[in-house]
Design goal:
169 residues; 0% strand; single chain; mainly alpha
């Protein structure tokens, strides 16, 4: 029996749910990124050492991201123990921070010794905020989805058919 064209295929339904999930993750991440960038820029402008400035800005932005992702992006995921989830979220973010710091340190302290232009605030912003954050974001999406806000079979079905305006659990 041929598939009913009015019914979306399983793959199409799953892809639509993934696109919604990525959109929500991107929105939360965009807001968190803006907070991270603003705080990092203010701290660097006031003379704070680059790695300390990035650590402070990331911790604050991470707190905002946790609540956005828990209560909006993956509201249908397993939410059995908030303290465990919060801790795991911060562990994954610490790894993401390590990725960002490694890129920033390589640029500022490694390449900066060869080419002083890599020691400027603009170079720090590009390497720490854009390159480092992009790589860390890919890791974060994968790790949040896989370990922190796991979606079970039942909640995945609920999420794929739930209207986007449904209330959070």
């Amino acid at each position: 029996m041929p598939p009913n064209p009015a019914q979306p295929s399983r793959l199409r339904t799953r892809l639509q749910a993934l696109v919604r999930e990525l959109g929500k993750f991107g929105t939360v991440g965009g807001i968190s990124f803006a907070i991270d960038l603003a705080i990092f820029s203010v701290l660097r402008g006031s003379g704070t050492e680059p790695l300390l400035a990035k650590t402070i800005s990331t911790v604050i932005a991470t707190t905002v991201a946790f609540f956005g992702n828990r209560f909006w992006t993956w509201r249908h995921g397993q939410h059995t123990h908030m303290a465990r989830q919060y801790t795991l979220f911060f562990v994954m973010n610490a790894i993401g921070l390590g990725i960002s710091l490694a890129i920033l340190a390589l640029s500022h302290y490694g390449l900066g010794r060869i080419w002083p232009v890599f020691e400027t605030q603009l170079a720090d912003t590009i390497s720490g905020q854009f390159v480092g954050t992009a790589l860390a974001t890919m890791f974060r999406f994968w790790s949040y989805r896989r370990f922190v806000f796991r979606v079970t079979g039942d909640s995945a079905k609920d999420q794929s058919v739930a209207p986007s305006s449904s209330s959070a659990h």
